[in-house]
Write a structure and sequence with these properties.
Helices cover about 40% and strands about 10% of the residues. The chain has about 550 residues and is α/β, with parallel strands linked by helices.
Amino acid sequence: MLTRTPALPLADQLAARFAERIRTRLMAPGVRLPSVRECARQQDVSPSTVVAAYDKLLAQGLVEARPQRGFFVREAPARTGAAAAHPPAAAGPGPLPSGSQIHATALIRGMFQQGGRPSQPGSGMLPRDWMETAFLPAAVRRLAGSRALESSWLTYGEPQGDAGLRAALAQRLARIDVPAGPQQIVTTVGATQALDIVSRTLLQPGDPVMVEEPGWSVEFARLDALGMRVLPVPRLAAGPDLEVMQRYCEAHAPKLFVSVSVLHNPTGYCLSPGGAHRVLQLAQRFGFHIVEDDTYSHLAPEHATRLTALDGLSCTIYVSGFAKLLAPNWRVGYLAAPPALVEPLLDTKLLSTLTTPSLLEKALAIGIEQGQLRRHAERVRARLEQARVRSVRLAEGAGCRFVAEPAGLFGWVDTGVDTDLLAQRMLDDGWLLAPGALFNASRRPGTLMRINFAATQDAAFWKAFVRARDEMQKGRREGPSPDRCGPSFACMGDRISTDSTVPRPGRSPPPLTSRGAPAARAASISGQSFDSTGCLRRRAAQP
């Protein structure tokens, strides 16, 4: 809460608080500020104090007032250039307009501003103590004392990556039926760089790219920054919406499809064998590549269906890393590609980072070869399963409803209130949330939210959540009342979307259940067989 002191007026304190969040991008361009009435109630101040604070933000050029809608963080200037030359389709499912504001950095920056808390509900990582190991420091000490390593410091190392690590990775991929020899593997600075290398190698600005929605917010932002035309594909329980994919292929001829087949972020869905076969049939028919982001492979069972395993790295590229399991700061990732693409991908890597740190790669190879990484992953999976059970119980006790079967690291929940506004409110108490809008290509406001099972076992968080949500619902039931703030200051109504599905041409949006979730999505969860991590059990593929 604000502090009442003669030295600094309340309006100045409130304006400074919003200004800091805007400048650090914890509040991204396009985000709505609370209405004058709601903000006054949140901060326990008069409406005139809020009006004065918003007026200061207007004067600083940080926000803008939109008639009859309220106050919004000011948008950045529209992009120009090659990307702007490709407008979206006129009707039906089409690409995200180039230059649209997609802001994943708000959540990323929040990961580095933990507010004094050891873990945050909206974080994309495991808590620090979960990732601590003894074998990595021991491997580094062992390597640091070797003469062979001392001589390697005087060179750039192997462009494709440490040979020992690539051999260990090839063996690990063989255990999940992905056929890749060491010569097909290229190490990278994390999985994010691997995805970037693939995009820069296979695509040109303006090319259409299919991406699952909801999906990883960084991927939307990264492709948009490269000038690509984002084609959002609704992600369902069994896989991507194949009808939407086919219409995209017929209308836009996409060059690439980016997919998280196993423990999809944020839903936790796992691809079914039947869905995988149909995706590969579309790729062969329309000639696009598939990049499979298997970032959460260490948290998933080996039997989970993967496109790269079924395709044999023919039109698919496998991407993974280790940041979700251990040593995020090491930034060790890799890709496995068809033989014909290895050299072009390596050329792109050379143009960006030349090589990758051999000391870290060699240390990781030791951990893999000695089985220490595998044992560490088993311990983390067991701990996560227990945390997931507790977090689900707490979430449901707080009135949240899971719209996807709880699985892996993340839960996809319906809160019943606008999670953009909820995130702003709870940030005052030091809680960082991941509102559902961050996982949509067009950043539509909604009631969904991603939670980290490992970071939501604290009953104090759920008490704070219930308090904030109930206050929002109470304010909505009371209805808007005019604030005495002049014609350019208007209260905001709640315009909330609960479904991220792209409307299909000539068809009505999917029906909603009584709780506001799409009926088709809710029904898709029932009647399936899940293992202990929430992945669909593998069944015989249908021809």
